[in-house]
Each structure stands twice: as structure tokens, then as C-alpha cells.
Amino acid sequence: MHHTKEPNTVPSLLRNVVSGIHPENHTFLLHKAGDSWKEISYKETLDTADAISSYFLDMGIRKGDRLGLILENSPSYIFYDQGLQQIGAVNVSIYPTLTENEIEYIINDAGIRTIIVGTAFLLKKIFKVANNCPSLQRIIPAFDQFEKHVQDVNISAGIIGFKQLIEEGKKSLTERKKQIDACREAILPSDLSALIYTSGTTGIPKGVMLSHANFVENAKASLLQIPVVTKDDMFLSFLPLSHVFERTATYHISCTAGCRIAFSQSLELLARNMEEVKPSIMACVPRLLERIHDKAIKSGTQGGGPKAAIFNWALATGERYRTVIEAGKSPGILLSVQQKLADRLVFSKIKEKTGGNLKFFISGGAALPKNVGEFFGNLGIKVLEGFGLTETSPVMSVTEYDRQIYGTVGRILPGIEVGIQDVDTKKIHTVQTHQSFDENLQSPEGEIIVRGHCVMKGYWNKGEETALVIDHDGWFHTGDIGQFFKGNLKITDRIKNILVNSFGKNIYPTPVENTYLKSQKIEQIFLIGDKREYITAIVVPSKESLQEAFGFTEEFFERPEMFISEAEVISWIADDIKRLSGELAKFERIKNFKVKRLPFSIEAGEMTPSLKAKRKVIEKKYADDINMLYTEESFNE
To answer: Which of 178, 322, 419, 458 pairs with 408 at a CA distance of 20 to 30 A?
Structure first.
């Protein structure tokens, strides 16, 4: 397994680990089997990947063929991906939450030849569309006792269990080994590694073409930016590997640096898994951090009395200590002693809930509210924020470990350029690189544009759409508005999200929504106001807070009425909206709102798989209710 070249393809990263970082019997993957965590070595991973490659070659899969995955995070995902990558095939991961129509579209658009399927529920989805997908030759259930689900199924594609596939591949592996090695060596960095379909907030899915170089260079550049990641680190993986953020931030970075990956059992069991595995690094979305923040505040202050006083004192002490350290000053003996006491009495108990070994969280996928980032900073828990899109592999910028500017998404990654372009005049205000970093730089706002190793090859079968986002100078236009602040990139919002009220004032929904999300009563909020006189909103209350405040049973949330009409609930939420409105300009404040009984969801078609609100869908679906907000009396004059 010797590998002497600098790794420049996805499969060469893992081979590089066993030739220069860890022995092949070192643990790479961990997953929960029964009551204990099972460890899987690099050797077992590579041997299994070779068997999968052997089977693929037996069935005629060749370089450039597209193979599908609709599979939860697990060792099976890694085995399958490595098996297809090293013979030059292309990973097409499909979000498990997509509808049957969307899955059918992706299989046909990509020309998927095999698909591995993680659950019985997903298998039923695939069976329903399989005969409408002429390219599909094999369906591979990756769960036990799948046989009872395939009886009396009338489809033209063949079915083989994942375990059987591996056994079949082992039979021909001896004669295929040299061919597998030759295939792996023949992969070019510019070759296609994956198609990742972005649903976006409008339109049909587009297959983002990402090369081996896109992934490998992005992982290497991220590690240059955060050199504290080492071969001894343990990632806990729970975000979907079908999303580019988790694939790069956890999987590819672990393959580059030699880290271990433990797979969480589920979102519901994540808290328990954190305490069991004791990860040192976790990629996460802001919502997880917001929930930890909310629970900690609630637990620390509930009931008042001495316990709440100690908690509030500790947080205030942590804030004083953090601001002194971040200013590059010495905290002094008294503040240092107070901080240690606060850590022992309060912070250590919160840290234990994360396993007690956490080096940092890396947050991406959406904006992290500034107050949540500061809260973790006060506890002494690092949260590094990253920014990027599927089309940028994804990382464009990420917080440096020793330089935190809350409310920003860090310094530009090595090897790429990021510009700020005026939305109207198209004049580029500034172009920044990792090398040109200036901690005093502050630029005007504009669209964020990028070029360099992170930019995709284009959209699959969509030349016109590609030309709309990558201009003749090679700049990819992100559609995000932002600026440089203290040298770091700061995101304001999406261009498509900007609300322009009837007086011509521009309102960016995301920062306004984040202000109101400081309320522990509010779970989700959707701002309305484009071409309107004032701002209104659809508010989804926190179910837990609602039940605590009013004692509602499950029956209350199962009622057919889409909106909650009880006056006491509306007044309860209005109190927090009025309080938080003071932090906003008058034209940004919510003047009226409706309270939605159930959250916006992917299943209802209201959210993308990366949990971004589909603005046009929501505005159309609730048009009558939204119009009522502008005919009823405003609550917040």
C-alpha cells in the first residue's frame, strides 16, 4: 500500500494515511453496534473498498460512470464511496428527504447505473421509480433482512445486498487487483469525483460537478487555515454526507490529516453519542449550537435563586475574560482566578455534555447568530465559522483558530481569490486572498464572487446555467451579499432574499430573523415585506416552551388549523418580539405576525435539504394569510 506521490485524488488521500501517517491496523471509523462502539481499521476499509471496486469492474462499471447513494452516514457510505472513487466512477449522493419525483429526476439526469439504499423506507421510494429509470442496473440494499421487502417487486433492475456484493467482489479480487491499482493511478485531479444536486430555493435540481482537485485542494487549504487539526483528532459525524459541507469538513479532512470518524446513531441520540465518543472536533449547523445555548441558559437560570445568580455571574466573568484575551491583553490574577472558578462551577458541566474533549465546533450551512458564538466563547468552547456553497467545494473562508471575530466567517482560504462586486454597477470593490489579509480592512457591501481551486467544473448537462454563474474571467457569482470586516469575510444575506419595502428601503431578512431568534419562545421565523409598507412574519413557536408555558398536549399540535389563534399564545410571543424589536431599525421591525402550529419542513416542500426556506413556495402557499397581516390592525406600533 505504499504511496509516494503527494495525494491529489480522493482515493489517494486514504492511501497516503497508511503509507505515512498511521499503520494500516489503526482505527479509522467507529460506529455503534448494539451497546458498544465497533472500531474499523484502515486495512478493513481499504480491503472492503477493493472488493467493491472488483464487483463494479465485474459488472462493467468504468471511469466516468455515475453511481448513486441514498444512504445515511455510516461506514458503508465510506466503503462504497472509496470503492467507486478508486476506479474513477462518480459519486452521486441523493438526499434521503427528497421526493420520489426528485429522486427519479436525479437518477435519470445523472444516468445513475447502481444505487446503494440505506433503509426499507428509502428502498420503497426507489422501487416506485426504478422502472422509469432506464440507466439503473443494480439496486443495493445496505440493511439486514432486506429480502422480505423485495418479494413480489416487479422491476427491471437487478437487486443484490451490500454484504453479498462485497463477498462477490472478494471472489474476483485477486485477478482484479492490478486493474484496480491501474484505475486508481489513472485518475487525474481534473476528473469528476462527484455530482451533488442542489435543490436551491427555486427551480429543478442542478448537478454540481466537483473534481478530485476541488475536494483535495479544499481539504488541504482548510488544514493550512486550521493547523491545530492533527492525526490524533476524533470527529463525530452527524450532518449528512450527501451534503458537501460534511463530506469535506469531516470525511475528506479526516482522510487528509489521518483523523478518526465516529458516526452518530441519529440526531435524537447525538447528545448521548457526544458523551460516549468524546469527540475533539464536530462539524455542525447553527441550529445545534442554538439548542445547546438555549438548554444551557434555561437549565442555569430556571427557578432563580443562588443557582441562577452563580450561572449569570459565571457567564459575565467568562465574557470579561474572553474580551480581554481577544484584545491580546493579560487578564490579570484576579480575573484569571474568577474564570477558573466559573469554569469549575458552571462551564465544565456544559462542556461535559459535549464529551469534555472538544477542541472546536466548525459551524456552516447558515449564519450563526453573533450572540450564540459569543456565548460559546464565554464558556471557553471554540466555534469556528466557515462559508461556502456546493459550487465552491465548499469552503471559501473559515475562522482562524486564534483569531475570532464574531459575526464573520473568517479569513479567505489559501489558493483562492474572493471579490466584493457592486450589485448594480458590477464594479469590483476589492479582491482579497489569504496572503493579502489585513486585519483592519473594511470594504463596502456587494455580491461575493470567487475564483480558484474551489470553483466547480460547472452544472451537469446545463451549459447555459453554468455560464450564468461563472463569468468570462472565471469568477463564480455566489448570489450572496457580504463585505470584509476586520479582514474577515462577513455575510449579510442572499441577493434573492433581499426585501425592498414600498419606501425603497433594503431589508436583509437573515440578520433580522436572527435577532428575533434570540427568543427562546421562537423556533423559526419567516420575514415578509417585499414591496410592502412594513415588515410582518410567520412565527413558529418552540414546542417545548409552548408546552411548558401553557401545558398543551400533543393533541394541540395535531389540530388541522395551520395557525394558532389563541390570544394568550399570540400575546406571549408578542412580548418577546416587542422586546427584541428595540435592537433593530424602525423599518426592520415586525409590525404583525401569525403563529404557525407546525414548523416549516422539507417534507412539506417549504425548506431545502440544507434547511433554507423556499421563499417563493412559502409566500405562495400562505398568500391569503400573509395578505391578512396587512389588513388587520398591527400589534407593534
So the answer is: 458
